[in-house]
């Protein structure tokens, strides 16, 4: 057995024993109360999931196994000559719970390189779609076509024992992660570059290869991809893409089925699609104003117009965060280092100065600060990656690292089917009248 798989198994067994003890002693402790409003309002603030890979603090932002983004940038192994973390190293951290050595990170890189071959029928499935199809639809179709390769599905059909679920899931997760850059790059080159495809470079790391296959062979773009793939990888368990992957996975759907389901959620404009919406919104503003460099006053007027027309300001607000997203800040730092004079990047910074007080003044928006999606597109445009409908695909490639590490943990801990209770408004009214027995069972 591969050493990383052995390490995971040892960690998962120890954690399972610990959780068993913990629940034996504390299982009946109450962790909170649920109000009727919460049930109607997207379950905001209800703790109801266990996700081991990362934890979100409303003020501080995300920590991956306890490490903040600046700490990851300092402590995770880097590519040769690079200064951003290798996302493969973050995957190891999320999976094993400890910082990897350089050897550990290289081991993941080489496993992914070895498994990166995508069967032809996946490309044929993508090619069968009209060229006008949204890249996220092509991507999910590609992932679904790849489901023919699921070891878990095959082994389950052959009578796999419960105690071995984790191992087939581990294998599927690594194979799927290995193949995603090729699928993403294929879609990019098919839709935007006349189907002139670029073969993988066996010597490059996972993100470097993605950049290479998309046609961006520039060391500073490789660095952007490493940072991008690291910071978008995970955001604890309750966000739509992670929660969906976990929920669908709880039915013992394999990695391919579960991840594809999660990415359909990422493709929604209130979640991952917001990254394309931000750039679209800025372009529309520039067009209306007739300038590439809107003033603070022009931005302010445009925000008011957006709000008046019943639309959200994309890239701002968050269901949990109550401060500027540290993923926004990490990208701002990257911008300051690599492209301080870029006009679009400077516009993103000016929007950051202008928008929060306006949103705050409305009184109803709980978080007026920018999230990760407010910044990512402008960095990509700087390198010529202007096709903003593609941006969520990059987010999806990264998100695979977190949600699939979590799915391996779900199997390692033998988590059960997820099935919360729902109610009807009629039943709520009966409950309010004191006929509460309908809520039982
Ligand atoms: C990777 C990610 O998924 S990060 C999020 C990406 N999404 C976006 O950037 C889209 C813009 N933002 C939003 O729509 C929201 O802030 C969300 C979906 C992220 C969070 O939603 P919620 O937790 O419901 O936010 P909140 O409790 O603050 O919402 C209260 C009200 O403010 C509105 N609001 C929240 N953010 C914004 C915004 N950026 N622009 C305008 N109105 C907003 C909500 O639509 C809601 O209005 P309503 O009462 O009329 O229905
Ligand atoms: O946490 C959330 O709800 C949304 C988010 O920022 C993410 O998934 O990256």
TrEMBL record:
GO terms for molecular function: citrate synthase activity. It comes from the Bacteria. InterPro entries: Citrate_synth-like_lrg_a-sub, Citrate_synth-like_sm_a-sub, Citrate_synthase, Citrate_synthase_AS, Citrate_synthase_euk, Citrate_synthase_sf. The lineage of its organism: Bacteria, Pseudomonadati, Bacteroidota, Chitinophagia, Chitinophagales. This is citrate synthase (unknown stereospecificity). Keywords: Acyltransferase, Transferase. Its EC number is 2.3.3.16. Pathway: Carbohydrate metabolism; tricarboxylic acid cycle; isocitrate from oxaloacetate: step 1/2. It is an enzyme of class 2 (transferase). Belongs to the citrate synthase family. GO terms for biological process: carbohydrate metabolic process; citrate metabolic process; tricarboxylic acid cycle. It holds the Pfam family Citrate_synt.
